[in-house]
Known about the structure:
This is NAD(P)H azoreductase. Helix content is 47%, strand content 9%.
Amino acid sequence: MRFLRWHARVERHLETLPFEVVVLRPNLFLQGSPSIAPAIREHGSLGAPIGDARVSMVDTRDIAAVAAAVLLDDGHAGAVYTLTGPAAITHTRAAQAIAAATGSPVEFRDLSESEFAAVLDGVLPAWQVAGLLEDYAHYRRGEAAVLDPAIPELLGRPALDLIAFAGDHRHAFGG
């Protein structure tokens, strides 16, 4: 999986530098779904090659809040934080949340890899689509469902959830 390998390479490089480092390892971004919002609006469906696998998707607003916290507070040097949402959810559940937020029907479609690549053609560059296909194979194997307590521990509040995300971004999906 190229993206995970690239991240690991960057982390190894950071270890060689002569300054304090904090590593944030976020899971799948909830904010990635608005990039396919036009397809969701047009077809009334959210599609991905993932089946019923669960992923502990994280809101990028939580990633930013954690980054600010570790920059402003002492005691994080050398730490590695895995950032996840508050629950591991299926894409079916994500489609239901978008439908509830927009008031429009949205269903999940389990796409083949080639169908998924075709949806993203022209939306993302080919190298990124290839990387996403590798990521989705990782998700499909259930390797991204783990929940981590870093966000609530660092922020003193629960991680933002799918319902909040869908409501806050309903206009992107057509609501």
